[in-house]
Every structure is written in structure tokens, then in C-alpha cells.
Amino acid sequence: MEIIDNSFNEFAAILLITAIVSLLGRFLRQPLVVSFIGVGILVGPFGLDLLESIDQIHLLSELGIAVLLFVVGLKLDLTLVRSIGKVATLTGLGQVVFTSVIGYLIGLQLGFNHITSLYIAIALTFSSTIIIVKLLSDKKEIDSLHGQISIGFLIIQDLVVVILMIALSAMGTESAEMPGLTVLYVVLKGIGLLAVIGLLMRYVLPWLVNKLARTPELLILFAMAWALALSAFGDFLGFSKEVGAFLAGISLASTEYREVLSGRMATLRDFLLLFFFLNLGSTLNLGIIGDQILPAVIFSLFVLIGNPLIVLVIMGVMGYRKRTAFLAGLTVAQISEFSLILAALGMSLGHIDEETMGLITLVGLITIGLSTYLILYSHQIYNLLSPLLSVFEKDFPRDDPEIATSKDDAYDVILFGLGRYGHNIARELESHNRSILGVDFDPKVIDQWRAEGRKAMYGDADDPDLPSLLPLKNSKVIISTITDYQINRFLLKYLKLYDYSGRIILTQHSTDKVQEFMKEGADFVLLPFADAVENIIEKLNCDVG
Length: 545
What we know:
Elements: H1 2-27, H2 32-43, H3 54-74, H4 78-84, H5 86-109, H6 114-125, H7 129-138, H8 145-172, H9 179-203, H10 205-212, H11 216-236, H12 241-253, H13 258-283, H14 286-290, H15 293-317, H16 322-330, H17 337-348, H18 354-376, H19 378-385, E1 411-416, H20 420-431, E2 436-440, H21 443-451, E3 455-458, E4 475-480, H22 485-497, E5 503-507, H23 514-520, E6 524-526, H24 528-544
Parallel strand pairs: 1-2, 1-4, 2-3, 4-5, 5-6
């Protein structure tokens, strides 16, 4: 009973410290990953030395990794990769290959052996899907072109890391006598496992999940049990637990309940991952890490600068504008939680030592911490570096995904923002035979607009280079249905810089900013809510009369 009480008090103290440190990290705008590793160091043997329940924390750590891989498999949207297509695949694979090769050569130059250099290089290639999705969502850029491309090549990276885990598991099961036969045996077992899961996905799981969904709590319980059962079975077959959990997620990804499951499991994932990073932080030998500071700084600079440059080059060659390539490139300027999991797997197999594990963790702390600010202030950084980035941009072909018009074309109206309000305005303008060019930052909206037979191009209203691509001289009116105050200010400013002489009409929800926009050069400001209320009152008065 005393052990239980001590463990309970220990966990309570650790969670309280984690909450306080995470609150401080939130104030510094850092992801929880950084705070969790910091707490692990703080409560570990080199800090407050609070950790005694090592076995329990290790078990929770393994559960956290299994749930993480399960959620990744559950949310694996291959249709997104297909919709983004060539750019996601080529950028994802190209970045993995170039980063691995260059990172490997840097490792050799720093004096590491071949295996260690290879592990470090591979760890540098993966970026954190969780962190990137969270940051892009906070900035409302998840549906933008660069956001969709980023998510596309992050999915490619996730697939690569799972394949590498399978390969490492096979290497870990090789016998000294006949390693080739052992690898072949593992591959055959893998094919058999995939065949069984495929049959379950086709004939059993959809029916079973539909039955379980009548009781939501039972559905979540089954999902958790299924994830851990396949995780354990994968480990039994000679693969890692992570591979089994990933396949469990994929097996349920085709059901209609994938979003419900991923939403419910995400909170559990974040909580359990705390213990993986606690376990990782607590095992770091700060004395050893001190010797790795110089290599960590060199590798971190490569990740922070080299990875975005690789993406810039690949997307530039494919004909994307420098702004889109730059914003997408910044999303790979950190290593992932998968990098740490892969390194931990390598250490458990005896391929690398704790010094290498500490080096990779230190690179993770540096790159995750700094890249957060790079992404948060990506637009300001782009504006600063824009003149230097032209070397990565080539002349756009007519079928380029970002350009659908010529500067010499003529339109009565250029309409920014193609949502519901923009569609209604467009229909009304078309009823009066006005020609319209639509501009939006969401590729799906662009496709829908074009499917309706309208002209449209990809563009972000706060992009300083966008006016140079628009047919401004032959357009009479520009209407922005975007309600964001800062974006409208940027758009107004850039249009004036390019001496646009037509009428500029902006949109706001509040009347507070109307006079400011009028003073800065807007001709009119639309107020959707106020206008709607006036129309309603007008109709009510007519009905009453």
C-alpha cells in the first residue's frame, strides 16, 4: 500500500510540475513536446530526482507511442496525397533523400561512424505532423496551398518512417547464421499480416464498428483495445509495436467513424506521449550532452536552413512561386517526435549509444523550439527575405497550379475570397453580365470555382507579390470579401503601391474600422451583418404594413 501511495504522490507531483512548465511554454509559444522533455530533465536524476516508478512510466511511454501510431494510421488520408499529387510526393521523397545524404556526409565529417551518421541523418529528415498541423490551424493556413502541400509531404514522411521501422525490426531479428533467410521470413510474415488485415477491413471491421458505434464509449474502448492488440501482435511477429499500432489505425481509417475516433484518441495520445518524453528527458545524461553541443548546433543549423532550402529548390524547379515554396519549406525546419522514437528504437537494437540518442534529442529541442517562431512569423520573415529568394523562382508556364490568368486579361471585377459570401456576390454580378476573376488561397475552393466555369487563380491577399500577377490595369473594381482586418490592410497597401486606379471595396464585420479604410483609400466597405439586418427589418416592415 505504501508503494501505491508513493507512486500516486509521485505522479501527482509530476503532473503538477508538467502543467506549470507547459503553461510557461505556452507563454513562450512553444509546443508541448519541448515542455515535456524539459519536465523529464527537471524531474530526472540530473534535476529534482523525483522519478522512482520507472517501470510504470516506461509502460505508459510505450502505450503513448502505440496510440500515436494508431492515430497517424487512422488519419492517413491518401486522397490528400493524390489531390496534391506530384508536388507532395516529389517534395516529400526528395527532401527525405537529400536531407539523408547531406546529413550522412556531415556526420562523417564530424567523426561519427557510418551507422551513427546514418541514424542521425535519417532522424533529421522527419518533421512533426502534430506540431505543423497545430501551428497551421492556429494561423488558419491549413487549407492554403502551402498548407495542403505541407500536409501532403508530411504524410509521405510518415509513410517512410513506418517503412524504416519495419526495416529496422527486420534487422533486429537477423540471425548470425542466415540473415538473408531471416529477413525473407520477416517479409513473408509482413505480407501475411497485411493480407489478414485487408480481409478484416473488407468483411469484418465495417460491420463490427457499425454495431459498436451504437454505444460511443464501447467504440472508443474497442479502438484502444484493437490498437494495443495489433501492436502486441506485431511485436510477436518480429515487427515493432509501432508498426502493429499503425496498421490498426489504417484498418479503421476507411470506416465512417475515423474522425470521431481520431478526435477522441488525440487527447489520450497527447496525455500518454507526455510519459514518452518524460522517460526520454529523464534518461538524458547532461554530462554526455555537454560534449555534443557543437555537433548539435551544426545539425540544427542544417535542419533550420538546409531543409527549407531543399524544399525551395524542389518546388522552384516544379514551377511554384517563391512565396508558396518558402512557406511550405519552413514547415520542415524541425525534427519530429518520430525522429526520437526511431532513435530510441535504434538504441534498443544496439545500433546507436546513449550519446547519439542525446545528440538527436538536443537537435530536437533546438529545432522544434526555433522553428515554432519561424512558422508563427513566416510572413514577416518572407517579406524580409523576398528579394533574396527570386533565384528559386522561374518563369511560370501557363498550366502552373498557381496561375490561371494573364496580366493582359481584362475583367470587370477581381474578387478576393470565394466562400459563401463571395459566391453570392459573384452570382449577382454575373446576372448583370460582369466578368469576374476569383482569387482564393484554398485549392479546393479554386477547383470548385473553376468547375462552375469561372476564372480563378490561387493567391493570398497578404502576399506583397500578388498584385504584380493580377491584371490590375484592365480591371475596374476589386472586391475583398475577406473580413480579417490586417489582411485587408495589407491588400489595400499593396494595391496602392502598384498604383491601382480602379475602385476598391473591402469587407468588415465591425463598423469600427470603416473610417480607417476609407481614409487609407478604400472606396466602400461592405458590412454583411449590418446589411443583412437592414434587409430583414425592411422585409418585416413591408409585411407588417
